[in-house]
Amino acid sequence: MSMLSISISTLISLVFLRSFLHKIVGFQIFAGYVEDYRLMPLRQVQTVSLFIVVAELLVVISQSLPAGRIVGLLLAALLLFFYSCGISINIKRGRSRIECGCGGGAQALSWSLVARNSILIGLIAIAITQQNLSSSVLGNAVGVVGGISFWTTFLLGDQIIANSSMMMRVN
Questions:
Q1: pTM greater than 0.90
Q2: DSSP assignment, residue 99?
Q3: Domain count along the chain
Q4: Is the four-CA dihedral 26, 32, 34, 40 of positive or negative sign?
Q5: Phi, psi dihedrals of residue 108, rounded to the nearest 5°
Q6: Which end of the chain is more exposed for a tag (fewer CB within 10 A), N or C?
Q7: Using one digit for the tens of pLDDT, what is the confidence trace for 15-27?
Q8: How big is the CA angle at 99 (ends 95 and 105), to the nearest 5 degrees?
Q9: Where does the pLDDT of residue 152 fall: very low under 50, low under 70, confident under 90, or very high at 90 and above?
């Protein structure tokens, strides 16, 4: 894999690990967020919530297995796409004051979250197209450090979105 692909794979692993841990630690709270989206019958909420948590864990695990990276990246892109669809539907319904359930700080639904997910999907597309089987240990290490740098930038952006969400709730 190229250093850029490794960096993006590392970023995606960290994003989904954070999200998975947030959801699994407070699973019933997360299931309540899924219910708030009103996209499915109530009887399906627990099953869909469990499916999401398992899928996010599979994204993380797959990134640690060279043979599973592409499948994991595709699964991550699919999840981000569906999350964006759910967010968009609810914003268009006028239901933007519900919690996104993304992981991390409390965030109301916003177009910023859709944009963030779109950027992550774009990065995943780059990672998939930048596959290169000849990589050195040094190249892999540099790629991981790059991914951690991307992660830091992601966390800063996520905090800006959370702060903006809090400001909107105050007003």
A1: no
A2: B
A3: 1
A4: positive
A5: -75, 160
A6: C
A7: 999 999 999 999 9
A8: 145
A9: confident
